[in-house]
Amino acid sequence: MAVDITEVQSKREMKQFMVFPMTLYAGSAYYVPPLIHEEIAVFSAKNPVFENAEAKLFLARRGGKIVGRIAAIISHIANQKFNAKNIRFGWFDMVEDYEVAEALLRTAENWGRTRGMETITGPQGFNDFDKWGMLVEGYDTIPTFSSYYNHPYYVDYVERYGFVKEVDAVEYHIHNLCKNPFSPRLIEMAERIRLRKRYSIVRFRTRKELLSRGNEILDLLEETYTDLYGVVPLTANQRAYYVKKYFPVMVPDLVKLVINAENKIIGVLAGMPNLSKALQRAHGHLFPFGLVHLLLAMRKPKLVDFILAGVRKEYRGRGVDLIMGVEMYNTLAKWGFEEAESNPELESNEQVRAEWKLVEHAQTRRRRIYRKLI
Questions:
Q1: Contact at 8 Å (CB) between 279 and 291?
Q2: Using CA atoms, how far apart are residues 281 and 36, in angstroms rounded to an integer?
Q3: Is the distance from CB of 107 to CB of 58 less than 8 angstroms?
Q4: Least confidently predicted of 65-69, 122-126, 245-249
Q5: Alpha carbon of 57 to those of 4, 39, 119, 134, 285: distances in Å?
Q6: Which contiguous run of DSSP H or E holds residue 137?
Q7: pLDDT tens, 244-275?
Q8: Which residue segments constitute the domains of the chain, with CATH numbers given?
């Protein structure tokens, strides 16, 4: 039977689009389902990302049964920044059938071609707040809740279709977290730098305090990441949207800021108790029991995810990262964390990757963004 591709048009089809991977990966020990309502919200007209982007969602069917999905995204602000005519693909899943993958990818690139695009890259979302990168190594590990899991055949299918590597990112796991403290020499060095440079550490007690500096943190991150692959600036509405969406669920005690003598944020490091297994138990829904699983995962966590980090350009190489690292380690030891996971870090980001030498770690996963001329 032929593969039939249709655009998502209704609320029912939108839900089918979001639920499909849960059927595909049913029983998988490694797939981490997202919360369905949050995935749907990404493509809601209320998401200010559509101020400078557009998207189409497509479902693949064979014999009336859904067998795949793909999102085609044009980020006008990204194309303007990088002087490109590029379409992105994401939310890409399918059964083990090359014809399905081919039909989905062709549909996405054909839409891009009608909009004047010349290249296609992915998997990517609208910006770095969305999941990105196809898993190419580390299929026997559970990813963090903010990254993709996919079967190995995805890689074969996109490469067979003509995609080539654009960029890779790697992820790390830290073992024996609290049994490998910073050396007394590094701790003393961090304190000496802090005092000499008149830096201060901000310790948050409440989410309200954290929210009050949300826009400042996004300012720092935007400056920190601006030169990295695919990173695009955010509008004022997008900043407000992401502060409201993400900062209320962050753990204040696991967010570390360093400020200078003028009270300007010059560095940020944030962690989050790993929620991957809790989300597996939630099966994409907060209710009736999903929220319980998430709350239980926050009570006595043993695994922490490092979700973001950044230092202002003019302060790099001045010990800000060391100050934050020592402060974070003290907090993690207090909580009793035993292990840690990183989120994807570009393999070309040598400065960040070099800092992993300070702790016992192992590379666990590799992700790839692919590129193809259309």
A1: no
A2: 14
A3: yes
A4: 245-249
A5: 14, 12, 18, 18, 22
A6: strand 134-137
A7: 999 999 999 999 999 999 999 999 999 999 99
A8: 3-169 (3.40.630.30), 174-366 (3.40.630.30)
